[in-house]
Design a protein that fits this description.
With about 350 residues, the protein is an alpha/beta fold. It has helices at about 10-30, 35-45; strands at about 70, 80-85, 90, 105-110, 115, 130-135, 140, 155, 160-165, 180, 185, 200-205, 210, 220-225, 230-235, 250, 255, 270-275, 280, 295, 300-305, 325. The structure holds 2-acetamido-2-deoxy-beta-D-glucopyranose (3 copies).
């Protein structure tokens, strides 16, 4: 008598399912490059191995599926890494990040516990387009090697404790569209080389930058420039010009000095804050013809009639100048030459 083992179709089906599941597992595990996986696991072990932030970062699972990681669809190399928005992570930026050589986007942001310098290992990341190290406790200088990462389009180092000068090498980043270095402790002057930037969105406010605004910026064309709350001096009129494209220029709270009467404004200017400087001359009529939404020229040495059509900005916007007059300030004293005492 032959014994036919009774194989239920359900049993066969479940074998099939688990087999295909194993294939899928091994297949997805393969997608992540081992050296990328090792680098990421090292980052996890440095910044908080037991934190729920890294829950999905587990050995022998596809690192391309880990939260805050992404891979190139074709090469399956890690091209995106975003660590941060977390108060529990702590430590320095691990040098092993430099082994993720296919990274195009790298963020370490909103992490009070991130300390130490910007590591030189980042100089290996030649494919980086977007580097954001912002709102952390990073210290030390802005490294000049960043100027060699020539694919960078966005560089955000804002709200850290970075000090020292702005490296002139950053002007070699010919693809750069945004440079945010505001709210640090940067010193020294704005590099001469920044005259080569075209259409750059540039925010360097709330630092300790000093020295004259370089003459070379007459060639630059910023789409946005905010240098407020520094100690800049000299002729900042080089930032203006009828052919420039700036939508916003903020020099508030510096010590720049130039004759405003001679300035030609970019025709698309929507925001202009020149308050708390040593700017003299009078306000050009052209200002009233711009699509301005923000205007402040208070606390300068300006004189003469305010062009008509600027009253919506209120008297605060013109206060504490040498002798500005007319709405929204007090009317100008009409001085008629004919009745002037010296003619009598
Ligand atoms: C993480 O957890 C493991 C096991 O519970 C423990 O041995 C290790 O000390 C912990 N590491 C940290 C940095 O807390
Ligand atoms: C830097 O560290 C201090 C003290 O540890 C903390 O209060 C502050 O929020 C941190 N800064 C940032 C930007 O995270
Ligand atoms: C202009 O700037 C001054 C000084 O910074 C400030 O007090 C005032 O409120 C500002 N006015 C407007 C309209 O922005």
């Amino acid at each position: 008598m032959e014994i036919h083992p009774k194989i239920s179709p359900l049993f066969l089906f479940s074998i099939l399912i688990s087999f295909s599941f194993m294939i899928t597992l091994s297949h997805t595990a393969e997608l992540c490059h081992p050296s990328d996986e090792n680098a990421l696991l090292e980052i996890k072990s440095r910044l908080g191995p037991n934190l729920s932030f890294f829950d999905t970062w587990r050995p022998n699972t596809d690192c391309c599926s880990w939260i805050n990681v992404a891979c190139d669809k074709r090469t399956h190399r890690v091209n995106y890494l975003a660590v941060g928005q977390n108060r529990d992570l702590s430590g320095q930026i691990p040098s092993v990040v430099g082994q993720l050589s296919h990274l195009e986007t790298l963020w370490f942001n909103d992490m009070p516990g991130l300390t130490g310098p910007i590591p030189s290992a980042l100089s290996n990341l030649a494919n980086l387009k977007e580097l954001m190290l912002a709102r952390t406790n990073l210290t030390g200088p802005i490294p000049s090697f960043l100027g060699r990462l020539t694919k960078l389009t966005d560089l955000d180092l804002s709200e850290n404790r970075l000090y020292g000068p702005i490296p002139g090498s950053l002007s070699q980043l010919s693809n750069l569209q945004q440079l945010k270095i505001f709210k640090n402790q940067l010193t020294g002057s704005i590099p001469e080389s920044f005259g080569s930037f075209k259409k750059l969105f540039f925010q360097a406010y709330e630092n300790q930058l000093s020295g004259p605004v370089p003459r070379s910026l007459v060639r630059a064309d910023f789409s946005w420039v905010d240098l407020s709350s520094n100690q800049l001096t000299g002729d900042a009129s080089v930032l203006f010009g009828r052919r420039k494209r700036a939508a916003y220029i903020n020099l508030n709270n510096n010590a720049v000095s130039f004759d405003l009467s001679k300035v030609e404004f970019p025709s698309k200017l929507q925001g202009l804050d020149l308050s708390h400087n040593v700017i003299y001359g009078s306000i050009p009529q052209q200002l009233a013809k711009l699509p301005l939404k923000v205007l402040n020229v208070s606390y300068n040495q300006l004189c003469g009639p305010i062009p008509t059509g600027l009253t919506q900005f209120g008297s605060d916007a013109f206060a504490s100048n040498k002798c500005l007059c007319g709405a929204p300030l007090a009317p100008c004293k009409s001085i008629s030459l004919f009745f002037h005492p010296s003619f009598m």
